[in-house]
Amino acid sequence: MEGRGHGGRVAVFVDGANLYHSIKSYHKGVLDYSRLLQAAVGDRKLLRATFYIVEKQETDEAQGTPSARPFVYNLNKFGYKVRSKPLQVHETTTPQGERAVSHKGDWDVGIVVDMMRLASHADTYVLVSGDGDYVEAVEYLQSEKGLRVEVISAAQCTSQALLDACDSHTDLAEIPDLFRRSPKQAVSDQRSAIS
């Protein structure tokens, strides 16, 4: 994405849950969030980068439940404003008397609202998500607000309607140096090389 001739002010919106599931399903290694932001902005002026996360309710860390705080702290260091909300857990009982648990947590509406709020201040939006739920918002922002909307996502799990609507798409796999090998992978690769 860098080096393209699209100047102006850019705002970046990262759908953290969508990004997480894409990485988990299709990519190995640890994503470099600083590098992701550099690739999204390129040589343009960053207006704002917002990273949206849904957090499990923190329980006692003594029980071994990790906190999202270090992750949020690092995102802030890299230049992201982090918006977080708790994962909602709903428990119901089926007619057969069995306990059913469902989870709800996404930022789709919140991201769209933030996009609308910033529309008069930016020239380009970069949406890091492959979710087709954003198509109508993308089309509105392009036709009614004159914004360029770019998408960064894992191509394998990106809605075709979103690909058709956006002005450009960058596959996560095409961004140089975006993924670092995790320490576990390095050890595994060394073992494979020795065998």
Automatic annotation (TrEMBL):
GO molecular function: RNA nuclease activity
Annotated NYN domain residues: 9-172
Domain of life, source organism: Bacteria
InterPro entries noted in UniProt: LabA, NYN
Identification of the protein by name: NYN domain-containing protein
